[in-house]
Amino acid sequence: MKAAIIEAVGQPFVIRDVDIAEPIGREVTVQVKASGLCHSDLHVAENDFGYPLPGLLGHEISGIVAKIGPDVTEFAVGDHVVACLVGHCGTCEACRAGRSYECYNPTFVQRTADQEPRYSLDGQPVFGFMDIGGFAEQVLVHENNLVVVNEDIPFEKAALLGCGVVTGAGAAINSAAVRVGDTVAVIGCGGVGLSAVQGAAIAGARRVIAIDLQPAKLELAKKFGATHVVNPADGDVVEQVKALTDGRGVKHSFEVIGLKATAMQAYDILAVGGTAYLIGMQKPGTILEIDPITSMLPMQKGLRGVVMGSTNFKHDVPMFADFYTQGRFNLDDLVSQTISLEEINEGYEELKKGRVARSVIVF
User: Fold this and answer.
1) What pLDDT score was predicted for residue 301?
2) What secondary structure, in 3-state letters, does 329-352 show?
3) Taking every annotated instance into account, which residue ranges of this chain make up the domain Enoyl reductase (ER) (predicted)?
4) Are 269 and 185 in contact (CB under 8 A)?
5) 309's torsion region: left (phi>0), alpha (psi -120 to 50) or beta?
6) Is the Cα dihedral 248, 252, 255, 261 positive or negative?
């Protein structure tokens, strides 16, 4: 099958003919119809996180079930599905409590070392990022990494549900449990940030403040429910946010960029008793310096890392898909452009320049 892989950190994606194994056990082969260009894949392509190479990145996919292993019980050939990187066993205490994102045995979905690799090139294993490897014509995944969605949602929209949407909207709805009347700020208005804005709006936040350097993205954020926008180019972010909140700051802030400076901004714009949620991937070695005596304890502030929006994706992804087809959730404006697999490097250049919310590869 045709796939875009990385052969060295910091080098462009290259198109190769990668071999894909037959499904065994509870594995499912999916014919990929759409694959989103998530910023997390770019981080891995450009920074050495220790993942083996060559690597098949991509994890935000939708498609149609093409084959199933002999032990699959949840899917049938022809199902429309979305993949999610939240690997889970389904039987541990966290999974049984509905917190699959905290699974104690996330490697349960992987093949063992003595089994044939799912992907290979010239007889050598190819690492499938996040147990998916979605920049390819097909993926081979455990059924615990898939969920069926309604067939009315277009594939290029559905693909975004498995990562960008559940990460952003889930952070607001699940992780922060935003309540009616809360004040919220979102730093970074890419695909995940816009989803966080929309999640906060759906939850009933009184003020939803979108923060970004790109005027076009701030205008776009208004389509997702932002009530106010802040451009750091116009002055100090903390002061601008306080001016919009009667000098108090916000109850919930979400940092979706992955920079030390913006992570500290997320903390500094909090009101008394507020919590900052760090979503963006920081570079390895990043250290945040916070004096608990002068700010955290007296201001009762919180700082929390969030992975995948604390999502139970088997529930959340179909829900958001239904919201979309009911006209209650905006996915159309998340897809900035559709591209071919061969245009992946150009797509990521557009992402790095901040010009797009999401580019989606279509097959």
Assistant:
1) 97
2) CCCHHHCCEEECHHHHHHHHHHHH
3) 10-361
4) yes
5) left
6) positive
pLDDT at 184: 98
Q: Is the alpha carbon torsion for 265, 266, 271, 275 positive or negative? A: negative
| Phi–psi pair at 296, nearest 5 degrees | -70, -50
Whole-number pLDDT of residue 355: 76
Give the pLDDT score at 152: 98
User: Across the strands, what pairs with 209?
Assistant: 185, 228
Report pLDDT for 118.
Answer: 98
Report domain extents, the chain: 2-163+310-362, 168-307
CB atoms within 10 A of CB 298: 10
Residue 157 host element (H or E) = helix 155-158
Residue 205 CB contacts under 8 Å (≥ 6 apart), including other chains = 172, 178, 180, 181, 182, 183, 184, 252
Q: Which residues of 18-56 are buried (b: 16+ CB within 10 A; e: fewer)?
A: bebeebeebbbbbebbbbbbbbbbbbbbeeeeeeeebbb
Q: Is 124 exposed, middle or buried (0-12, 13-18, 19+ CB in 10 A)?
A: exposed
Closest residue by Cα to residue 132 from 161, 150, 109, 104: 109
Residue 241's Cα: distance from chain center in Å? 26
Average pLDDT of adjacent 10-residue blocks, the chain of 363 residues:
97 98 98 95 90 97 98 98 97 96 96 96 96 98 98 98 97 98 97 97 98 96 98 97 97 96 97 97 89 90 96 97 97 96 96 86 98
What architecture is the 168-307 domain classified under in CATH?
Answer: 3-Layer(aba) Sandwich (3.40)
| 168-307 has the same fold as 2-163+310-362 | no
Q: Tally Cβ neighbours within 10 Å of residue 293.
A: 8
Q: Return the bridge partners of 142, or none.
A: 27
CATH of domain 2-163+310-362: 3.90.180.10
* Residue 41, amino acid: D
Distance between CA 357 and CA 14 in Å, rounded? 23
- How many CB atoms sit inside 10 A of residue 120's CB? 15
